[in-house]
User: What shape does this take?
Amino acid sequence: FDKWDKIVSEHPDHIAHLAAQEAEFDRIQRPKNQAAYQLMQKIVPSDISACSKNDLLSRGIKPELVKRFNERKSLRLIHMDKKLIAKTHIADLRIKFSTQGLDLIEYRAVFYS
Assistant: This one.
């Protein structure tokens, strides 16, 4: 069975079909992800990585949001430079910047960034 699965999965038509599906998915989801990204850029402070809890509270940000920003470090990726994200070690992306616990809007924004 594994032999036939390997033959099918390596077939050029199958690879082309998967690429077309991925492109179609991206075409449909990109505007939604971009809208979420733009919304979250307004909510998450641009200097979030350099701010302490007290700094955020002194700016008048609600304590619930401050707690969320501190617990969900992946939200920092929204304002992080794409080149810096690309240089970040995969272990940090999976653990330190884990997307677990994000709501759909936050997840879309982080994915878009």
Observations:
- The mean pLDDT is 92.
- The radius of gyration is 19 Å.
- The first helix runs from residue 2 to 9.
